[in-house]
Amino acid sequence: MGGAISNAQRAALRRAIASHPDWPAYRRTHGVDTASLGAARAVDVARHLGLDVETLIGAAAPALNEETPMQHFPAPAAPAGLFDRRTPAIAAPAAPAGDVGAALATLAAAFGGAGNVQPVLDALAARIEALEASAPRLLVVDRDGLPFGGELPAQRHPMLETLVRCLGARDAAGRRLNVWISGPTGSGKTHGARQAADALGLAWGFHGAMSMAHELTGFVDAGGAYHSTVFVNRFRDGGLCLLDELDSWGPEATLCLNAALANGQVSLPTGEIVDRHPDFACVGAGNTWGLGATAEFVGRNRLDAAFLSRFAVKLSWAYDPALEAAMCGNPDFAGRVQKARAAAGKHGVKAIVDPRASMAGAALIAVGFSADEAASMTYLGGLSPEQAALIDGGR
Fold first, then answer.
1. Architecture of domain 160-316
2. Collapsed DSSP state (helix, strand, coil) of residue 281
3. In this predicted model, what pLDDT tens digit does every residue of 141-163 receive, in sequence order?
């Protein structure tokens, strides 16, 4: 392939490289990441990984014309007299590293302040600021530098890396550790567990609160046919299964888990004994640690100590303000919700002010409601005027 490639085409190559299953090993061996791949290196690496470079570059070409229509920018013109100089121009001092504004000012000065270059400079400055403000993707590795799985997304809870590391660990029998994550409502426990499954390349499974054994292990109908469950499928074939609201489960359901999680076998209603797959991972999630009801979560059960011991790893999953703001898409309203949450705790107002209020409020604002209207319909809904004034009056 001859000729240079555009930024959009290079970005397409980088995305394809990052999603290739052999990329983590190549990255570790050669000490590079996708951000450091220039155009020529990206082409070489893509070919090394067996990617169809020509097809990827060809597919990205139309996007270049749509996203960066350079024909809309007037052609830059040299300042008058630039080529009449008989002595070398004095080089401008180098801008300090990281000083984007000074670097752009130096570049503009080199063009004599030509206005036709300013739109390009503005776009470049905005792009640099966006990249500097965004959270980087993360590859989780063990002490030997070997990755546990794929890269974690930039938008992630600060405990996600810890969860992936814990699920990547194995006991003496070679089984992944069972992990309990506890946090308030809306703190992103389910979302985090699914991101962990994606990072580890595990199939995803989910169960909500249960009270009966057959909800977990399946049942045999009147015709003699066995009906399996997500848990049994993941246990047999591998994958991550999230057992949500685990502190609300009934004792009959949790009792079925004891042998499965501790001994690596589950007994089905058909009489079949299923062995735990080496790549089965179990995450339990709840608003408490299974020790009984609290002032906020009055419907939670006190779970049997033998069952709780099956989850030897316990992680606290608190609210993360940065993730909340990023997920709702309206940082201003998210900040208002977070202030109200803190005020509710300070004044003892028993109200749920969780990130779901930020997301719902942002959606309402996006369709034309004011921030005050969105607040009244979300985290202030159901409160008395006095309570609302306590948590939202001092904005």
1. 3-Layer(aba) Sandwich (3.40)
2. strand
3. 666 666 777 788 888 899 999 99
